[in-house]
Amino acid sequence: MPVYLDHAATSPIRASVLELYVSTLSEIGNPASVHSFGQRSRQILEQAREDIANAINCDRNEVIFTSGGTESDNLAVKGLYWNENNKDSEKKVIVSAAAEHHAVLDAINWLVDSQNAELYLIPSDDQGVLDIAELEKFLDKNSSRVALISVMWANNEIGVIHPIAKITQIARGYQIPVHSDAIAALGHIPVSFAESGLAAMTITGHKLGGPVGSGALILRRDQKITPVNHGGGQERNLRSGTPDASSAAALALTITEAVYEQVELATKHREMTDRLIAGVKQIANDVIVSSENAPRLPNNAHFRFPGCLGDSLLFLLDSDGVSISTGSACTAGVSGPSHVVLSLGASNDEAMGTLRITLGHSTQDQDIAAFLKAFPKAYEGAKKAGLTRR
């Protein structure tokens, strides 16, 4: 049986979610319509909003449905920047992390190129954790010019967990709004919007067993942003367009189930990743385990193999029925070293020799056993090939 260990890219849809998704797709009606069909769709949509709020500890009115993580990140980054910059034209600086997700970094860079924004990247330590001292130092001198801070809750490539509560505590002293992409964290570690201190938070469902194309921006009730899309004024007049009630319902059930299972699955996944890491170290004694000595997601194991190409390992393992990745699927097909791994101080060659294994709700012990059985042969082949694609 083929083995799938790339859940940070996307995860198989849960049977319960698929059943609900298909059944709600048969419902007719625009949630904005006042007739009975429309009101049924509205009921589905609002129940989904309520369920998500209960799962992540926020107010139901703080849930803004979107098409997924990238849209939510763009709405948060651009919307917060425009709102803050319109109030004070001196607020041009956006602070983020050197290892941030491209959905955030590219949105910021668009603002830099077209809106005269400025980007300041906070470095990470050699484990990938955001340098809090550097953040404090920068804000102490430049806080009056900072429009927002955007730092992901946990890194989707290397699995490191950032100190979000500490970041928001520091930012609060300067009245700077903080956004966090929590997609990699949700369902794997505790995530509470109310306790986080965040102004905005991005979530999605397809990496937890929901359908692709479902997501939400969680926006604090007292936080204003400028909308990116304009039209019918749906979703608090912040995300115009007919809401997809079926996707919202599927997203809500996915998150509800993932949060309910989180503690049990985290224990199971931590044991599995520990077994994976130990098995890889037995074969590749010079392997570097990313963020090994930092707070790390329980379902993530990220490796660097000196003298190997990650792509070689990927293809050799895939030919043996084991599917993994070399890094973020959001930059799939882009040749070159990962900016995340480079931020750890790795060389270009080291950054080309990576492998990421991520577990999900459907991962079983036999999947781990299959990887450990296939890995020695794949590693030997990749080692012989060396760094030939340069």
From TrEMBL:
This is Unannotated protein. Keywords: Iron, Iron-sulfur, Metal-binding, Pyridoxal phosphate, Transferase. GO terms for molecular function: iron-sulfur cluster binding; metal ion binding; transferase activity, transferring sulphur-containing groups. Coiled coil: none annotated. Transmembrane segments: none annotated. Its cofactor is pyridoxal 5'-phosphate. Belongs to the class-V pyridoxal-phosphate-dependent aminotransferase family. NifS/IscS subfamily. Residues 3-371 form the Aminotransferase class V domain. The keyword Iron-sulfur applies. It comes from freshwater metagenome. It holds the Pfam family Aminotran_5.
